[in-house]
């Protein structure tokens, strides 16, 4: 399981650079513009320059409306600015067909510029609260559109968490559907250390965090701390060892 950490500024990215050996992907977002709020192109570029070259940079393009052309241009801006992973929050798409149309435009815009970049179709565990596409439809959406990964996050950051809306057994179904479609499965949404056992057991490929590695657990008012990143990684590794041992014992 890969660890994705989301700084919201160049200063926080420099903090992530200090903890680079404990994380796998540096994710650029702007939390005050939403769950998957897009940051500025120059911030993506500066963060790309600030973190080690071997650490891929992910960038969100926002909690987007159903405007395929607009979103494709935004995605191109992210990859031109240095993002290896381009994430799109399908906030304004109410049907799978709308989501596929948006993501097909993104895939073409991104891959025409950089074929090795990865495109992530992101939905929301709390989709019922905002009226967007069903979370379990995301793997099929991503597959039909030619994406590389399907992701779930939470849209409304009010203290509720991923498993509050999509419990572990349903997240396991999401991961299974993604893997059957040849996609990476990413999960986020106020994930904490206590969730790592379940995330490991269901085969999650990427776990995304911010609040869990910020002081006071505050994604908005707190700052990312290197020792919290290190502690989160240590628990990830512990859970991975425990799961491997359990699988070996069962076989």
TrEMBL record:
SUPFAM superfamilies per UniProt: Ribulose-phoshate binding barrel (SSF51366)
Matches recorded under InterPro entries: 4HFCP_synth (IPR007565), RibuloseP-bd_barrel (IPR011060)
Protein name according to UniProt: (5-formylfuran-3-yl)methyl phosphate synthase
Phylogenetic lineage: Bacteria, Bacillati, Actinomycetota, Actinomycetes, Kitasatosporales
Record keyword Chloroplast present: no
Coiled coil stretches, renumbered: none
Matches recorded under NCBIfam families: PRK02227.1-1
Enzyme class: lyase
Function: Catalyzes the formation of 4-(hydroxymethyl)-2-furancarboxaldehyde phosphate (4-HFC-P) from two molecules of glyceraldehyde-3-P (GA-3-P).
Known catalytic reactions: 2 D-glyceraldehyde 3-phosphate = 4-(hydroxymethyl)-2-furancarboxaldehyde phosphate + phosphate + 2 H2O
């Amino acid at each position: 399981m890969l660890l994705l950490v989301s700084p919201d500024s160049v200063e926080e990215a420099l903090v992530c650079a200090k903890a680079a050996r404990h994380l796998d992907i540096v994710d650029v977002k702007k939390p005050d513009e939403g769950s998957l709020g897009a940051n500025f192109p120059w911030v993506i570029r500066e963060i790309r320059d600030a973190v080690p070259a071997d650490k891929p940079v992910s960038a969100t393009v926002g909690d987007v409306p159903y405007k395929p052309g607009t979103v494709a241009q935004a995605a191109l801006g992210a990859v031109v600015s240095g993002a290896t992973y381009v994430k799109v929050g399908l906030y304004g798409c109410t049907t799978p067909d709308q989501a596929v149309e948006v993501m097909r435009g993104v895939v073409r815009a991104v891959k025409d510029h950089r074929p090795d970049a990865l495109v992530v179709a992101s939905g929301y565990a709390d989709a019922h609260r905002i009226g967007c596409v069903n979370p379990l439809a995301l793997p099929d959406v991503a597959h039909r559109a030619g994406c590389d990964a399907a992701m779930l996050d939470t849209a409304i950051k009010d203290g509720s968490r991923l498993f509050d809306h999509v419990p572990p057994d349903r997240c396991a179904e999401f991961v299974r559907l993604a893997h059957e479609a040849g996609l990476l499965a990413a999960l986020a949404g106020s994930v904490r250390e206590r969730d790592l056992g379940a995330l490991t057991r269901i085969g999650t490929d990427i776990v995304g965090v911010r609040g869990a590695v910020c002081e006071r657990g505050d994604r908005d008012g707190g700052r990312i701390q290197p020792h919290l990143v290190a502690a989160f990684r240590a628990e990830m590794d512990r859970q991975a060892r425990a799961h491997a041992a359990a699988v070996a014992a069962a076989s």
